[in-house]
Amino acid sequence: MSEILIKDAYALIDGVIGRHSIYISGDQIAGIDRMPEGFQAARTIDGADRLVIPGLINAHTHSYMAPLRNIADDMPFMDWLFKGVQPVEDNMTPEDAYWGAMLAIAEMIRCGTTTFNDMQMHIHQTTKAVRDSGMRAVICRGLVGDEYDKDNYRVKEAFEEMEDGKDCGRLSFMLGPHAPYSCGPDFLRCVADLAKEKGLGIHIHLAESVTEIENLQKDHGCSAIEYAEEAGCFDVPCIAAHCVQISDHDIGILKKHNVSVVTNPASNMKLGNGFAPVPELLKAGVNVALGTDGAASNNSLNLFHEMSLLALIHKGTNMTPVCVGAEETVRIATENGAKALGLAGVTGKIAEGMKADLAILDLTEPSMMPRTDLLSSLTYSANGSEVDTVIIDGEIVMEERELKTIDLERVYHEIEKMSDRLGIGNKQKINRK
Q1: pLDDT at residue 428 greater than cutoff 80
Q2: Domain 56-340 has what CATH class?
Q3: Fewest CB within a 10 Å sphere: which of 4, 167, 380, 390?
Q4: For 315-331, what is each residue's pLDDT tens digit?
């Protein structure tokens, strides 16, 4: 059993930053400022000029899409999806998805993310990338359909992947009906029934665009939130990504069913979809987590960038500087994410008994000076390049900015080959016309 001591560092514990020593034994935090009996550090990390935070949690993304960044920019949402991204996505092979996930994981680790919630299309590939990289993840196979059909081949693939990943403690699973515009009400009810039978949560895109809402009103006479509620999606733990176009009535439904909302500020802005009403959601007591969405719509998987946007957007749109503050933003990106993913008590906090999922920032970076308010620095000043060391499940996966579990040179080589084959290399662009 490996044992690591992070000695006398600044650390974020229960919303307060102070000096602490953290003792890691195996995959857990075994002590804070108190050496466990029999502890013998195999590694000691000098905490001088370092800040330890809970690893960030990317609560909604599509890791396999990392190679698709920058290929369909400045397009309306539905054109971006069906004319820009999907034709390239349809030509990706399972091996492409693996290398895409490895690229995404490398980027996330570099920016202090230790857990991500993924909706993917190629089974076994993201789970293999998680195994190989040492990352923690919640995985769901994207599901689409119209009929009530428990033998839907995508559903079968989802359960096959769950079986394949059950021996990895860093992997857990949900069911992932894609969205109201790709899942008919009967199929959505089928997925909800399966989730109840199997004791699983649901991860779904909801109320992302005006077009989605208009079509639902025309075809079903309801909002996206009402559509999902009627189908039973909220009868199990549910993660609703986006929730941009929602009403006060919708917020009441989300609160009633303890649905977790994942806001994705950069993606929603880039696609012109608007802003989720985060202050209203928080005021209503809805658990709000933070995600990047996929790199095809965000172009980045950097949660520090997302934290800054989250705080600044709502101050600006609500015309008040006391809206979504630094402490709340960091909690949204850590504890709230863990709660959404069913990992509260596992990760998202620095506390004894929690998994040792930690990011260590270098406080000698210019962006972190002077050290007046380090909690504010995390939200308003840090950009991710300050992350020096990352520990996941008690294992050091990055040290002094060097990835220990990922061969970046190989990843880049495979991504370049894939890009050329898919016709997206050499700065080629999707035709916007």
Answers
A1: no
A2: alpha beta
A3: 167
A4: 999 999 999 999 999 99
H helix and E strand count, the chain? 17, 18
The domain limits of the chain are 3-54+357-403, 56-340
The kind and range of the H/E element at 119 are strand 113-120
> Which amino acid is located at 122 in the chain?
H
Are 3-54+357-403 and 56-340 in the same CATH fold? no
Q: Report the percentage of the chain scoring pLDDT > 70.
A: 98
Q: Which amino acid is at 26?
A: G
DSSP assignment of 51-105: EEEEPEEEEEE-GGGGGGTTSS-S--HHHIIIIIIHHHHTT--HHHHHHHHHHHH
Q: Kindly report the CA angle at 197 between 259 and 118, in degrees rounded to 5?
A: 50
Specify the pLDDT at position 433: 41
φ, ψ dihedrals at 347, nearest 5°: -145, 175
Structure tokens that stand for 327 in this block: 């402490």
- Give 116's strand partners: 58, 137
Contact at 8 Å (CB) between 142 and 157? no
Residue 75 and residue 81: Cα distance in Å, rounded?
9
- The CATH architecture to which 3-54+357-403 belongs is Roll (2.30)
Of the candidates 381, 401, 371, the one whose C-alpha atom is nearest the C-alpha of residue 389 is 401
Q: What is the pLDDT of residues 346-384, one digit of tens each?
A: 999 999 999 999 999 999 999 999 999 999 999 999 999
- Its sign, for the CA torsion 284, 203, 293, 392, is positive
State both tokens at 239.
């993660």
DSSP 159-179: HHHHHHHTT-TTEEE-BEE--
How big is the chain, counted in residues?
A: 433
Q: Distance between CA atoms of 419 and 400, rounded to whole angstroms? A: 30
Residues 101-114: tens digit of each pLDDT: 999 999 999 999 99
